[in-house]
Amino acid sequence: MQQREKQSGNPVYILPLIIIAGAALRLVLIGRLPYGLNQDEASIGYDAWSLLSFGIDRNGYPWPIYPITWGSGGGSPLMIYLTVLSTKILGRSIFSLRIIPAILGALTPLVAALVLLPDNTISRDTPAGRDWERSAGRGSAAPGKASERAFVTACFAAFIIAINPWHIMLSRWALDSNTLPFFQILAILALVRAANATRHRLPRYMLCAALFALLPYSYGSATIVVPMVMVLSAVWLMLRKRMTLAELICSALTFTIVLLPLIAFFAINKLGMDAVITPYFSIPTFTSERSIFLPLGSDDLFTLIKNNVWYLIKFFTLGAEDGEIICNYVPGFAQMYKFTFPLTLIGIALGIFRTLKGKSTTDAVMLFFTLSTALFTLFIEPDINRMTLLLIPMCYFQAVTLSTLYMMRRELGIAAGAALLAACGFFAVSYFGPRYAGLSHDAFMPGYTEAVRCAVDIAGDERVIISTYTGLSAPFMSALYESETPPGVFLETVEWKDENAEFRVAKEFGRFIFGLPEDGGIPDTSQYVVILHTSETGSVDESSIVATFGDYAVAARE
After folding, report:
1. Per-residue pLDDT reduced to its tens digit, 498-525
2. Peptide bond into 34 cis (omega under 30)
3. Quick one: average pLDDT of 405-431?
4. Where are the domains of the chain?
5. Strand partners, 533
6. Backbone conformation region of residue 214, classed left if phi is above 0, alpha if psi is from -120 to 50, else beta
7. Rounded CA gap, 268 and 264, in Å?
């Protein structure tokens, strides 16, 4: 480390400071901010708690290969099973729900830096070592120049991910797609290391294939994008003579074996077969079908694709904000800081040039992820969660541009980094301050879980709890999670609004009824325990308000 600092003049402590700062942005107040609990978080948390406590999920399946959650999906297995682990260690809480994506988010800048730093197991006297030096040193084989450029790029990559508004936000709440960037960059690290290896390359490629196969277990969009990326990567590697036919076959077999349970799940559902249920695992069947793909037979297909092209243009430039969920963006900041899009576009151009020259595996795989995700987006109903596989490549291409500026003239790179840091400061004020608290009410329903807990304590075993629907999305899910209702009781008592709906929502279960009377009246608080939105409390006697939590109040009388 000291030798590198002497050679390049770069302070080696910068990278650890970036990692620590990025971790702080993701871990500080993780159980309290965002305030409240999103229905998807509650869904993941309840299924994890149910599996841990009873061995079945809320749909009655023991240890499902792919939990069907809302009926047509909506909760990928990797996040749910990781949450089983965090619940086992830390208990059931918002903190234990969010700690997994927070830790993985904090580690992502570090893994991104490792992708770009040289592998010390590779000798510079080998073809792979000399190739890395040429790609890192812009055609020069000078070891000092190559090491300096690699270190600078690694620092910028870690820095950009650490302060990226999209990545900070997705690291701070528990949606399954939010773990995707970590497993994506981990798989890319394994691929780069395997491609540059001069010995023991086969087991490295097999490990890489296994890690890529984990991505579809993280989120549904990876099921389509990852195979495309792997095919493109394999072709590029074989043309560069960095992968043999035997390595390709073994990697493909490894990928297939790891993905086989998911393949079986999709096959059983596609063919209309019965669910497979054993005491140790199950392969569930959906209660309804849904598709995110555009209707291929539609007369408006060309218009829909044209709209998606425009969406992608906005996404890669000023950011796509129309219709995006507030959980993963703050208005005005979008996915990347708005002024950074030239960095992205220049980085993509540099990546294309270096890939065509055959110099960089990292450039190639980042381009393949970008291309595959963009093609996938053309034919779906786009939203920010389905675009998550673009986050790491976009940050990488910005880092490539900044490191190029820095190597040309240090002052340019430092000035650009300072501008990004200032933008992060403005973002932090918006996100950690009152602005985002006001914006995120509908997404996280602040105070509702505390109101449920209070209502359960008051109701005991006798009284029914009636909950408002005002300001709430699928409140039954938050009530299930907070009340710790056993899944057997839920399945026996649940009454669905529409059992065949794409997303099944309960109108009642156990002691809970969701929705106030249609005539707008408030139920008798001496007979029921009632959860109201604060805008509705004027309809009841003030003396019956037991407690208020955020946007919600509990009303009950003896």
Report:
1. 888 888 999 999 999 999 887 667 888 8
2. yes
3. 92
4. 2-291+298-435, 445-555
5. 552
6. alpha
7. 6
User: CA angle, 24 as apex, 388 and 152 as ends, to 5°?
Assistant: 70
Instruction: Report DSSP letters for 380-394, one per residue.
Output: B---GGGGGGGHHHH
Q: For tokens 């026996």, what's the residue?
A: 492
Cβ burial, residue 117 (10 Å; 0-12/13-18/19+): middle
- Report how far Cα 246 is from the mean position of its chain's Cα atoms: 34
Looking up tokens 């450039």, which residue turns up?
363
Across 295-389, the runs of DSSP E, i.e. the strands, are none
Q: Alpha-carbon distance 503 to 131, whole Å?
A: 51
Q: Cα separation of 349 and 138, whole Å?
A: 14
- 468/533 Cα distance (integer angstroms): 7
CA dihedral 26, 27, 29, 35 (to 10 degrees): 50
> Distance between CA atoms of 495 and 12, rounded to whole angstroms?
60
Amino acid at 450: E
65-101 pLDDT, tens digit per residue, is: 999 988 887 778 999 999 999 999 999 999 999 999 9
Is residue 30 pLDDT above 70, yes or no? yes
Range 245-251, long-range pairs (CB < 8 A, 24+ positions):
246/202, 247/201, 247/202, 247/205, 250/202, 250/205, 250/206, 251/205, 251/206, 251/208, 251/209
* Other beta carbons within 10 Å of 521: 9
Distances (CA, A) of 273 to 51, 70, 138, 256, 269: 24, 20, 56, 21, 6
CA-based torsion, 229, 235, 236, 238: positive or negative: positive
